[in-house]
């Protein structure tokens, strides 16, 4: 015999969930696969570990997870179905078949950049919904990212999430979270917001692309302090196949100051989507990413990687008074380029002096330095082929990046770095930003529009439209819930825009609630995402308060939130018992039967011949109220002769 909270295989847990097997165990909870006997679906049950069952801190943390996750409804978030209301603490949630992102990284890292971006964009979609609801996850890590066989990603474990007015939590004086993925402000115990989750996602991206986290150590405290005090090793040092633009996005996500990071999941998602399409990233990301790289690369011997070039600007008037205020990000960019140039020149000088010193004299040193450096020719405005030829003739390597431009013809050089006129070592790579022409279009906002109208609007701009279906409680069926890329993003004609189209409220299956007490029936409907509708009382042999019928019937598919109407028993109807005293036996029995009662005849000896075969008495008495079908006992006289 099992107890209500038995978690052994085959046990009925909490009176509803049939345990199939244990899935795993972490530091806080045990997880079991179970069958929901009411809704006939597999679920995962997280049960608070025994050692924490009497700790109010861990119980609060566990309940926090259920509250936080229950507020969120999104295809990329693990759905919570039920939680304990007392006694053993547990959470019942969606069972996701597959593996964790950590398992995938261990087996296949480093991941292809496009695959890593696709995974990150799905995580960002989940974080976007959470952040809009005021929920900060605070424990984003590969172990909490579930990978389904079809490639769909689901974010789980909001166990230390901060939601709305909830009090910030620490554990025995330590910081909540996992050390390898902590944002600096989180490691210092400060209040955190969405940028902390985006920092953690930056660590996850770094790990997907390199197979390692940027900060490791002998203890959690040591790792946490490295987040606060040290810059990460450049991603391209660990995996040279990572595009520089993607490295810049990751490095901006890992900025120490949360104000320099992306401030929203949408902002980071737009940058990742641009990298995926081969489009340039923003100046701000380039500046912050390059500044992080400049902090991490040794100045004397390694190649400096500067940010992507800003768009070409008109030349100032010859009188020098036309500069204006300018873009502050561009000013920061050029300041950074100057600093990087100084570092490069200083490194080259130090290298030359070192070689000269080993050769013996100052004249030799001067000759060595002069022969190692070449002047960078100015090729801005030239055709790509001509510019490439000029630079290669000067002994320099060339890297081509593309940039749309409304005022520079396609194929011409918009800008270059390092700038023309400087002196660099032979073989240095010069990046040329080459115009692709004015061929970008801004994606319009079609969110909320009918899918037909939205598709026509996008196709008129030369964009390809794909659609995916999803349920929505707020967007009408056939209208657009969301779009990717987001409105305002500039893309090439022929790019694909994916529209998520509403299928209406999520369909659910009506559970069987007949023969349930009305309170239990209402709980079963809530668990199925439905509501209790009208309640009609009717006389019935069933106990008072029990559901005797329902509409719609069990097994019917209905929209989420639909009402189920019930008829509830108010007990059997009562009728008056007819009086049959002094009637003949046969007549009395017929009278009672026709009135809906069951006669029970008992004979009693009598010395009065007039009472032979006549009803002498009855129980219950005539005119009393009894439920239809009740038994009425009648006493019938049987004459036995005179008595003395």
Task: Give your account of this protein's structure.
The protein has a six-stranded antiparallel β-sheet, with helices on one face. The chain is elongated and about 150 Å long. The longest helix is centred in the middle third of the chain and has 32 residues, at 328-359. Mean pLDDT is 80; it is low at 163-176, 297-335 and 342-371. It has five domains: 12-94, Phosphorylase Kinase, domain 1 (2-Layer Sandwich), CATH 3.30.200; 99-296, Transferase(Phosphotransferase), domain 1; 441-502, Trypsin Inhibitor V, Chain A; 507-569, Trypsin Inhibitor V, Chain A (2-Layer Sandwich); 574-639, 2-Layer Sandwich (Trypsin Inhibitor V, Chain A), CATH 3.30.10.20. It is built from 16 helices and 33 strands. With 644 residues, it is an alpha+beta fold. Helix 3 (113-132) runs antiparallel to helix 9 and helix 11 (328-359) packs across helix 12.
So what's the CATH class of the largest domain? Mainly Alpha
Work out the number of β strands.
33
Oligomer: single chain
Radius of gyration: 39 Å
Overall average residue pLDDT: 80
- Fourth CATH level, the homologous superfamily of the largest domain: Transferase(Phosphotransferase) domain 1
The rounded distance between the terminal residues' Cα atoms is 66 Å
Give me the secondary-structure category.
alpha+beta
Short recap of the structure:
It is built from 16 helices and 33 strands.
Topology:
Blueprint: E1 12-13, E2 17-25, E3 29-36, E4 41-48, H1 56-70, E5 80-83, E6 90-94, E7 99-100, H2 101-108, H3 113-132, E8 135-136, E9 145-147, E10 153-155, E11 162-163, E12 170-171, E13 174-175, H4 184-187, H5 194-210, H6 220-229, H7 235-238, H8 244-253, H9 265-277, H10 283-296, H11 328-359, H12 362-372, E14 373-375, H13 384-393, E15 397-403, E16 413-417, E17 423-425, E18 429-435, E19 441-442, H14 451-459, E20 464-470, E21 480-484, E22 490-491, E23 496-502, E24 507-509, H15 518-527, E25 531-538, E26 547-551, E27 557-559, E28 563-569, E29 574-576, H16 585-594, E30 598-606, E31 615-619, E32 625-627, E33 631-639
Parallel strand pairs: 15-18, 20-23, 25-28, 30-33
Antiparallel strand pairs: 1-2, 2-3, 3-4, 4-6, 5-6, 7-9, 8-11, 9-10, 12-13, 14-17, 16-18, 19-22, 21-23, 24-27, 26-28, 29-32, 31-33
Helix pairs in contact: 3-5, 3-9, 5-8, 8-9, 8-10, 10-11, 11-12
């Amino acid at each position: 015999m099992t107890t209500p909270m038995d978690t052994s295989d085959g046990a009925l847990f909490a009176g509803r969930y049939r345990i199939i097997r244990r899935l795993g165990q972490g530091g806080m909870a045990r997880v079991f696969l179970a069958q929901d006997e009411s809704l006939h679906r597999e679920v995962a049950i997280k049960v608070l570990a025994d050692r924490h069952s009497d700790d109010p801190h861990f119980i609060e943390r566990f309940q926090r997870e259920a509250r936080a996750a229950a507020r969120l409804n999104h295809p990329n978030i693990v759905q919570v179905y039920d939680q304990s209301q007392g006694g053993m603490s547990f959470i019942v949630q969606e069972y996701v078949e597959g593996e964790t992102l950590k398992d995938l990284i261990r087996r296949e890292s480093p991941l292809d950049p496009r695959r890593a971006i696709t995974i990150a964009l799905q995580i960002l979609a989940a974080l976007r919904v959470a952040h809009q609801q005021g929920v900060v996850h605070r424990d984003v890590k590969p172990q909490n990212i579930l990978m389904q066989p079809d490639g769909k990603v689901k974010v789980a474990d909001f166990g230390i999430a901060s939601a709305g007015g909830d009090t910030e939590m620490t554990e025995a004086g330590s910081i909540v979270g996992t050390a390898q993925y902590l944002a600096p402000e989180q490691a210092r115990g400060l209040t955190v917001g969405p940028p902390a989750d985006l920092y953690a996602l930056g660590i996850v991206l770094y790990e997907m692309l390199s197979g390692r986290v940027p900060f490791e150590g002998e203890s959690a405290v040591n790792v946490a302090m490295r987040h606060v005090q040290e810059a990460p090793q450049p991603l391209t040092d660990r995996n040279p196949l990572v595009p520089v633009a993607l490295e810049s996005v990751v490095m901006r996500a890992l900025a120490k100051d949360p104000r320099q990071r992306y401030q929203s999941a949408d902002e980071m998602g737009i940058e990742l989507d641009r990298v995926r399409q081969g489009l340039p990233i923003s100046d701000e990301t380039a500046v912050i990413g390059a500044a992080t790289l400049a902090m991490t690369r040794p100045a004397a011997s390694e190649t400096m990687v500067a940010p992507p070039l800003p768009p070409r600007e008109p030349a100032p008037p010859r009188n020098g008074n036309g500069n204006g205020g300018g873009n502050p990000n561009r000013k920061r960019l050029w300041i950074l380029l100057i600093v990087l140039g100084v570092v490069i020149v200083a490194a080259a000088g130090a290298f030359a002096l070192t070689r000269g010193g080993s050769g013996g004299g100052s004249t030799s040193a001067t000759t060595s330095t002069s022969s190692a450096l070449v002047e960078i020719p100015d090729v801005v405005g030239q055709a790509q082929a001509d510019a490439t030829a000029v630079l290669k003739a000067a002994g320099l390597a060339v890297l081509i990046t593309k940039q749309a431009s409304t005022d520079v013809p396609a194929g011409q050089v918009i800008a270059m770095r390092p700038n023309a006129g400087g002196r660099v070592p032979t073989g240095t790579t010069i990046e040329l930003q080459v115009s692709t022409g004015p061929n970008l279009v801004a994606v319009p906002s079609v969110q909320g529009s009918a899918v037909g109208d939205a598709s026509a609007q996008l196709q008129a701009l030369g964009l390809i439209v794909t659609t995916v279906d999803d349920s929505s409680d707020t967007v009408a069926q056939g209208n657009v819930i969301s779009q990717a890329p987001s409105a305002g993003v500039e893309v090439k004609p022929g790019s694909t825009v994916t529209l998520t189209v509403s299928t209406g409220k999520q369909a659910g299956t009506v559970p069987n609630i007949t023969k349930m007490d009305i309170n239990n029936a209402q709980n079963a409907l809530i668990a199925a995402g439905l509501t209790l509708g009208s309640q009609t009382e009717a006389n019935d042999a069933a106990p008072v308060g029990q559901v005797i019928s329902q509409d719609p019937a069990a097994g019917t598919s209905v929209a989420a939130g639909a009402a189920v109407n019930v008829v509830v028993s108010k007990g059997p109807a009562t009728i008056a018992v007819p009086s049959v005293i002094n009637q003949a036996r046969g007549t009395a029995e017929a009278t009672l039967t026709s009135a809906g009662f069951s006669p029970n005849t008992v004979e009693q000896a009598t010395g009065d011949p007039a009472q032979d075969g006549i009803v002498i008495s009855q129980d219950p008495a005539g005119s009393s109220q009894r439920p239809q079908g009740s038994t009425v006992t009648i006493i019938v006289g049987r004459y036995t002769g005179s008595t003395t």
